[in-house]
Fold this protein.
Amino acid sequence: MLYKHEGVDRMDFILKKDLTQANDLYHSIKISRRKRNYQHKLLRAAKTERIQLNKLSREMVVKVQELKEKRDACNSKANKFKEMRNKAVTKLHETTNKTKKDKYNKQQIDYHNKMMLAVDEAQAHHIHIDTLNVSIVNLNKEHNKKHEEVLFLRGKSEVFHADIQLAIDGIEAIKAKHNIKYLDYELAELDEEE
């Protein structure tokens, strides 16, 4: 048989036990928030790096497009000089006049030299394009690694956030169980110390 004071003591014991648990949950929220916020700090830094890598890669892609246009223009110019040289060579072989032969020979040499300069310029652009393409591939690899890091950090942050939510739900359940509107955690901490 229960005496009246035993029921009250039991209720006080359950209330104190639940308040202690609520206080523990409150402290776990503080720790999980710190951990989550630290993950968010790392996440922001990783996102900033990822954005910078992406920006640099895009700038290089634009530069490659510009260089391709320059290379193609040089190749077009080289083809025009080649056609002009070939016409001069054809006229050189067709004519018998010594003066005209000298003129066409000089023209074909001049066009050939201009063609070779355009080819060399196009080749220089092409080498620069290849170098930039290698850099773009490397930047994209770094970007992908940074993206994986962002996903990993976001996952860790979500775990800490879920821990916070579970602790909050636990506290809310304790408050509802005892019909408590507000818990003063600082007072609960002082009671623990006494």
About this structure: Helices lie at 4-94, 98-177, 185-193. The CA atoms of residues 63 and 132 lie 8 Å apart.
